[in-house]
């Protein structure tokens, strides 16, 4: 439709579509509909691919643990994989939200899932450290251990920043200041998820895995790639400031 000046009125047609445009695909391909509940966000767009990948990864780890006699150490890979599973769900849940109501509801559940994830990761860290102390093992020497420590620390920082910027924006000086770092929180979240997969891959090269669990490196890489293939295309360009 053209205006009185003869210039096509495209603004109204495109208004609000920027935030709904995913990294790959068309606007609305990965957006929660007005009448849809948050539960549908777990499978919208390419989320189904991400679900296949992350559940394959979790199942691979859990199966390898449960076919062996259970011990205190068994809780370490079980809790870590559960934490990454929860983090992935938290990301998938929030990605499609775009209205104020959806964002508020989504953020609250996103935070709850991530807090639960952090608690499982802390438990995993405590267990492995206790196990090391009990057996006089070396601390933070292998690539997996070093990557794991870095990942734990970054997860904690990510959670603290995410919670405070949304629920206590005054700590950043103002609500606008807090909102200005949202995009960096989102970017670091995707990078941290990728780092988590790298840490799991490094775990396959430890002596315990090679001698006991036998989790295959290729299986971890394939499952991780499938997960990222499902997660990354749903990234909203505008939410990253693109």
What percent of residues are in strands?
A: under 5%
Termini gap: 29 Å
Describe the largest sheet: none
How many helical stretches? 9
Q: What is the string of SSEs from the N terminus onward?
A: HHHHHHHHH
Radius of gyration: 21 Å
Low-confidence stretches: 1-18
Mean pLDDT over the full residue set = 88
Number of strands: 0
Please describe what this structure looks like.
Helices cover 64% and strands 0% of the residues. The chain is mainly α. Helix 5 packs antiparallel against helix 7 (182-203) and helix 7 (182-203) runs antiparallel to helix 9.
Distinctive features:
globular, disordered N terminus, 64% helix, 242 residues, mainly alpha
Set out the fold topology:
Elements: H1 11-14, H2 47-66, H3 75-94, H4 100-134, H5 143-167, H6 175-180, H7 182-203, H8 207-213, H9 217-231
Helix pairs in contact: 2-3, 2-9, 3-4, 3-7, 4-5, 5-7, 7-9
Short description:
The chain is mainly α and 242 residues long. It is 64% helix and 0% strand.
């Amino acid at each position: 439709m053209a205006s009185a000046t003869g210039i096509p009125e495209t603004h109204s047609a495109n208004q609000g579509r920027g935030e709904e445009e995913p990294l790959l695909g068309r606007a609305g391909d990965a957006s929660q509909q007005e009448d849809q509940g948050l539960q549908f966000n777990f499978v919208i767009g390419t989320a189904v691919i991400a679900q296949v990948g992350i559940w394959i990864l979790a199942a691979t780890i859990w199966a390898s643990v449960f076919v062996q006699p259970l011990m205190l150490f068994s809780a370490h890979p079980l809790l870590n994989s559960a934490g990454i599973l929860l983090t992935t769900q938290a990301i998938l849940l929030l990605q499609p939200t775009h209205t104020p109501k959806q964002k508020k509801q989504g953020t609250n559940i996103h935070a709850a899932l991530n807090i639960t994830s952090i608690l499982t990761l802390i438990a995993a860290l405590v267990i492995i450290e206790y196990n090391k102390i009990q057996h006089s093992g070396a601390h933070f020497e292998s690539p997996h251990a070093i990557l794991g420590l870095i990942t734990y620390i970054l997860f904690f920082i990510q959670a603290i920043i995410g919670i405070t910027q949304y629920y206590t924006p005054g700590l950043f000086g103002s609500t606008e200041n807090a909102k200005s770092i949202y995009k960096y929180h989102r970017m670091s979240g995707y990078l941290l998820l990728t780092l988590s997969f790298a840490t799991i891959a490094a775990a396959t090269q430890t002596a315990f895995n090679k001698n006991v669990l036998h989790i295959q490196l290729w299986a971890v890489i394939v499952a991780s790639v499938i997960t990222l293939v499902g997660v990354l295309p749903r990234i909203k360009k505008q939410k990253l400031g693109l």
